[in-house]
TrEMBL record:
Signal sequence bounds: none
Name of the protein in question: Acyltransferase
PANTHER family linked to this entry: LIPOPOLYSACCHARIDE BIOSYNTHESIS O-ACETYL TRANSFERASE WBBJ-RELATED (PTHR23416:SF78), SIALIC ACID SYNTHASE-RELATED (PTHR23416)
Length: 203
């Protein structure tokens, strides 16, 4: 079964030197995977699960890594650029998210034991570049996003570029996170602000 799946996936990989590694313990069903460029890597470790996901890579030397026990469904994972990373930690559940790393050498990392609900947007960029009219300098370059361990992100939330959400925090329903969130706190609103500190939560 795994060998047949690998063959089907490889038919969607354009150009040379791209690599797909799927653990024999993993579970994949109804996913669409398209990779174009060179030296890109897609790694599904341990008993990682992907259901009804779209994975798209355009560029070179990129890595998408799903760690052991991660459970991802109804989500889009997108990389556009070179030397980018999307990493999803161990035992992290994602119920429906758009995860996008665009630009060169940008990283979008999600830690272990996180819980992401549905209709969540996490993007390392603003959507379109903005330039200074006099110098042509790009003003809104992509920036890394870091989400720590055991972070709970409620439905309809958005995490914008350059944000770091530290361990054990909760992001409320419909919030837009534009600044770093300290560990073990609750942040809600537009833009998200911390409303409670020194908390912990359970699945």
């Amino acid at each position: 079964m795994i060998e047949k799946l690998k063959i089907r996936l490889l038919n969607l990989v354009k150009s040379r030197n791209n690599y797909i590694s799927i653990s024999p313990k993993s579970y994949l069903i109804w996913n669409k995977i398209k990779i174009s460029g060179k030296k890109n890597n897609l790694i599904i470790s341990g008993n990682g699960k992907l259901r009804r996901c779209n994975i798209s890579v355009k560029g070179n030397n990129n890595l998408i890594k799903v760690e052991d026990g991660a459970n991802i469904s109804y989500s889009n994972l997108e990389v556009v650029g070179d030397n980018c990373l999307i990493q999803i930690g161990k035992r992290t559940d994602i119920g429906g998210a758009y995860l996008s790393a665009k630009g060169n050498a940008t990283k979008l990392t999600i830690g272990d034991d996180c819980m992401l609900s549905r209709n969540i947007n996490i993007m390392t960029y603003d959507g379109h570049p903005i330039f200074d009219i006099n110098t042509n300098e790009e003003l809104n370059l992509p920036q890394n996003i870091y989400i720590g361990n055991k972070v709970w992100i409620a439905a309809n939330a958005s995490i914008l570029k350059g944000v770091k959400i530290n361990d054990g925090s909760i992001i409320g329903f419909g919030s837009i996170v534009t600044k770093d969130i300290e560990a073990h706190s609750i942040a809600v609103g537009i833009p998200a602000t911390v409303t409670k500190k020194n908390i912990y939560w359970n699945h």
